[in-house]
């Protein structure tokens, strides 16, 4: 009979609450040096929607809160345009520490490796167990890798999905919209992103009444 292997960061102890889990994550040493602190998820347990991003950025690392930088502000705007109240959803990241390259005074974001995503995957799964959302939204490829356990093309799979038995939805990370140079293309991408948010809102309501 095959033996189930633990994720790289899975601890031996059990956790009875999200607060206990977060305390353990906060005490965990970053895989890569430099991060100021672990950036934990934010929002109420029992939230209908949970958004999962890639990793904290520069502002998130400094403030200790998820999605407070430029991408976070864009996500807030899209949620508002779609009728989603950020205070009633849960937001977190697949990787809990900021990975960067120092260039002068600037800290430039670096994408986590698949191994780094696996290292944090157990923590993310446990976190979502405690929150127990009706739908989990994967924002970008790293979030999809963490939630699905494998790489999935974003644009081909954009829309409804299932992650380990959880109802899910795949869309782009808001930072991808910020990198579009042309105003027209950026506006169209934003409208598509808001359409995703509206669909997520509708699906979360369906799940609550099912």
Provide a brief overview of the structure:
The chain has 210 residues and is α/β, with parallel strands linked by helices. It has a single domain (18-205), classed as 3-Layer(aba) Sandwich (Uracil-DNA Glycosylase, subunit E).
Q: What's the story with the biggest beta sheet? A: 5 strands, mixed
CATH class (first level) name: Alpha Beta
Which architecture per CATH?
Answer: 3-Layer(aba) Sandwich
Terminal CA distance reads 37 Å
**Mean pLDDT score, rounded?**
91
Strand order of the largest sheet: 2-1-5-7-6
List the keywords.
210 residues, 5-stranded mixed sheet, disordered N terminus, 43% helix, 8 helices, globular, two-stranded antiparallel ribbon, 7 strands, Uracil-DNA Glycosylase, subunit E
What does the model show?
By secondary structure, the chain is an alpha/beta fold. Helices cover 43% and strands 16% of the residues. It has helices at residues 18-27, 58-63, 70-81, 114-131, 141-148, 154-157, 174-178, 183-209; strands at residues 49-53, 90-93, 100-103, 106-109, 135-139, 159-163, 166-171. The strands form two sheets. The chain has a five-stranded mixed sheet, sandwiched between helices. Strands 3-4 form a two-stranded antiparallel ribbon. The protein is globular, with a radius of gyration of 17 Å. Residues 1-8 have low confidence and may be disordered.
Task: Give the helices and strands, then pairings.
Blueprint: H1 18-27, E1 49-53, H2 58-63, H3 70-81, E2 90-93, E3 100-103, E4 106-109, H4 114-131, E5 135-139, H5 141-148, H6 154-157, E6 159-163, E7 166-171, H7 174-178, H8 183-209
Parallel strand pairs: 1-2, 1-5, 5-7
Antiparallel strand pairs: 3-4, 6-7
Helix pairs in contact: 1-4, 4-5
């Amino acid at each position: 009979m095959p033996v189930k292997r633990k994720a790289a960061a899975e601890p031996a102890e059990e956790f009875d609450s999200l607060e206990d889990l977060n305390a353990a994550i906060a005490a965990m040493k970053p895989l890569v040096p430099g991060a100021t602190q672990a950036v934990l998820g934010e929002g109420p347990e029992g939230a209908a929607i949970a958004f999962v991003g890639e990793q904290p950025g520069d502002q998130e690392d400094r403030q200790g809160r998820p999605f407070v930088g430029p991408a976070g502000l864009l996500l807030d705007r899209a949620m508002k345009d779609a009728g989603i109240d950020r205070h009633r959803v849960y937001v977190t990241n697949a990787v809990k520490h900021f990975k960067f390259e120092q260039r002068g005074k600037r800290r430039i974001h670096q994408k986590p490796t698949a191994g780094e995503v696996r290292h944090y995957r157990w923590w993310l799964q446990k976190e979502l167990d405690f929150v127990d959302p009706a739908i989990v939204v994967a924002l970008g490829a790293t979030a999809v890798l963490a939630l699905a356990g494998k790489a999935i093309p974003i644009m081909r799979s954009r829309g409804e999905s299932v992650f380990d038995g959880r109802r899910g939805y795949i869309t782009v990370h808001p930072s991808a919209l910020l990198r579009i140079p042309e105003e027209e293309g950026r506006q169209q991408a934003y409208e598509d992103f808001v359409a995703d948010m509206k669909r997520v809102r509708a699906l979360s309501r369906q799940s609550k009444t099912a």
